[in-house]
Fold:
Amino acid sequence: MSKELKVMEPKQYDDEIDLYELIEILVRHKWSIVITTVICTLLSLGAALYVRSKTPNYLIKSILIQQDTYGLKGVNKLDVDSILFKDINVDRILEIEPIKQKYLENTSENMRNMISERKFLQDIITVSKNEKNPNEISIKTEIIADEKSGRDIINTYMDILREQDNLSDVIGKEKKLKSDSLEKTKIEIENIQNEILNIFKNDSDLRVLKPEEKIYYIASKYPELNLRKSEKEKYYNTYVNELLTLDSLNDKLETVKETTDIYFVKGQSKAKLILGVGIVMGLFLGIMITFLKEFIDGYKRRYQK
Structure:
């Protein structure tokens, strides 16, 4: 039994990996590892530079939309998402010459139509809303030509959005309507007052009454006239208060507020990741080639014996 153990023991040692031998193999073939790593590094560097050159950069502008109709009819609902749904707005943005040229370069002639134009702009323009406050909006555009044309896109988008805001026009029309009604009511009240003056002149019963008694006398003897006077005075006061309310809205007409200037954001590329993976893969591949060469050399030596 002890003899069998002694025979098996050397075989076990023969199957074990010698760490010093592995290191000696790596040192002996170090140039193979270095050359393979350098080649892979250069290839990954080229790929990283290409990816970096294709990584888009952006321009962003943040705005705040605080819209209230104030109970007025005919006020447009501002919708930043629907701007590119209108053909006239698509045409207006594509009037920016560098953007138009990029569209023509990227679209074959037989595919040029309103649908492709809209898709082209939707790919480079992104509108996002703050999850916590939907009124906080950012407009982002990819810089596909130059920074100036990117700024022109955002400014044009902002102009279109502001043109949708017709609150000041509605308020102006409403003020005109209320002012006309106020003037008309004022004339009607003056006419009623003239009728009352004629009554004072022509009704002899009023001459013997005290001033406070005259009011009650007219109210009881001419109820229709008194009712008309009360209604017109009520309308007059209502129109005055409504005009004061409309005037107070002048400081609230800025529906679209710019919270930031247009600022530049560099796109996130995977260039560093590609370079790092290339170096690691080159080192790993070099080690694998080294062991493969060592295996082939060992096989040849055993075969020659």
Remarks:
- The domain at 57-167+254-265 is CATH 3.30.70 (Alpha-Beta Plaits).
- Residues 167-202 form the longest helix (36 residues).
- DSSP finds eleven helices and five strands in the chain.
- Strands lie at 58-65, 125-129, 136-142, 256-258, 263-265.
